[in-house]
Automatic annotation (TrEMBL), chain A:
Organism per entry: Pedobacter metabolipauper
Source domain of life: Bacteria
Start and end residues of each ABC transporter domain: 6-233
GO MF entry, a single one: ATP binding
Family: Belongs to the ABC transporter superfamily.
Keyword S-adenosyl-L-methionine assigned: no
Entry-linked Gene3D superfamilies: P-loop containing nucleotide triphosphate hydrolases
Lineage: Bacteria, Pseudomonadati, Bacteroidota, Sphingobacteriia, Sphingobacteriales
This protein's record includes keyword Nucleotide-binding: yes
UniProt name for this protein: ABC-2 type transport system ATP-binding protein
Automatic annotation (TrEMBL), chain B:
A Pfam entry, by short name: ABC2_membrane_4
Protein name listed in UniProt: ABC transporter permease
Keyword annotations from UniProtKB, A to Z: Membrane, Transmembrane, Transmembrane helix
Organism: Pedobacter metabolipauper
Cross-referenced PANTHER family: INTEGRAL MEMBRANE PROTEIN-RELATED (PTHR37305), MEMBRANE PROTEIN (PTHR37305:SF1)
Superkingdom of origin: Bacteria
The keyword Transmembrane helix is assigned to this record: yes
Transmembrane segments: 20-40, 60-82, 112-138, 158-180, 187-205, 236-254
Amino acid sequence: MSDLIIETRGLNYYFGTQKVVDDLSLKVKKGSIYGFLGPNGAGKTTSIKILLNLLKSPKDTVFLFGKEINSNRIASLKRLGALVEQPAIYAHMTGRENLVNRCMLLNIDKAKSTDLLELVGLSDAANKKAGKYSLGMKQRLGIALALLSDPELLLLDEPTNGLDPNGIIEIRNLMIDLASKHGKTILVSSHLLSEIERIASHVGIINKGKLLFQGTINELHDLSKPTLEIEVQNAAQAASLLTENGYELIATTENKISLLFKSAEENGKINTLLVQNGFIVTSIYQIRKDLEHLFLDITKNN
Amino acid sequence: MRSLLISLQSEFYKSRKTLAFWAAILLPVVICGLITFGFYTNSEKILKMNYPGMVLWMNYSGGALGVMGMLILPFYVIFMAFSVNNIEHKNDTWKTLFAQPLNKLSIYAAKYLYAVLLIFCCLFLFASLTYLFGNLLQVLVKGLKFNEYSPIEILSKLYLKLFLSSLGILSVQFIISLIWSDFLKPMGIGFIGIIMGIILYTKGWEYAYTVPYSHPSMALTMAKGKGTPEIFTQEIYTSLIYAVVLFTVGYFIVARKSVK
């Protein structure tokens, strides 16, 4: 219990009669980078808004830092920083003024704004109106705003949206740094698994409000069972031979057969069987389904 | 209380470069300046009238008060209510504002209070500038009798009354501007409200005091009686009741609204 920074217990949330969060039980450990994955409209932003108490959760379903959120709203919010949807920035104020304004609200030293501007690479644009910032710059300013109070927990909703490849790498490295060197806990949402798998230690996959998977990134990898691909001439006949010999096939095309990988010895036996029966095997290899496909499979099947 | 002060300070910081803030200063400066300029250029005619001090002050301050009560104040209040809320609508910042570790009521109350304060400052400036510019005219134009009468009491009471009478409109418009993020609805409804308020009042409808948009005109006209005006009249009480009730309603709206 004590090392869980975020915990939701069977959380349900409705917009009118539509259930948008369905029995969600998130468990985010201290110091982890939790990738919160799901297609658009899966309920990620709603869940983050619930964690920020912007949407009111039923009693005793959401716990931040081990405490129930509704009765500890201000104390919990003091310890977290957030970036929800597009960064909320006052367009008529400069980047620095946006940060100074937040310093006021958080009652922290205004000089902190200079450090944060430097951290997110906006020092040169500090005195430019935020409305004139590019999407990437706005996103950086949003991240700076979230980091301003040096929070223990960061909730970042699609933080690399609109960033160029360099910006994405910088933010990614920043998140890794924050978690590994400064012990921050980060919940980062995205609809791109490729982005999350590079930084996250833990993953939660949500679709239609339901949590379909939750665990470490390695546990997610383990879900994807490797297959054996055999390229062979006369694949149809080869396939029937294998079936007759008790092998279960996944798919057969004109010159390729796919079946579940069992072991290296088993591969050898299959190869021998085919060659002894006069088939010309041109290639035999093992493939592991990449996470992107796995993610699609998990979300599609639900 | 600390939350309220912090939020109020932030409201000032956010809006200090906007028209709503500067209008509170520019409106009185420009209007009082123009009226004073008019008096100065027409000083010969005015001297011929040989008004006694009190009438001269009434004549002079009536220029600003009349325009303010009927049109400018209601419009300014409508614009102010719109502007304070629009700063969050326009930038989609309600959600961030309510995700700060601050009491929700303080955030909302600070916004309302900030609008009230700006209106107060605007009217305070009107009263002060009327007094200062009147005395300036006295120095510039020999023979005027501004020095025969001290208008401080009556000016303070009239502007205080005008201020209290504007709180009803502010509260209605504040809620409208909270609910709708666009420019046309609050401004359109406000505009219709003002016209309706003026018509209802000038036609002498018995229950005009129930319509907040009539309050500023009523507050002023009732004061045209003899002696110093009474501050707490029927329309002022109604205006204050509107303010208290709608302020409370607004809080519940904002608490729900911020979540989307």
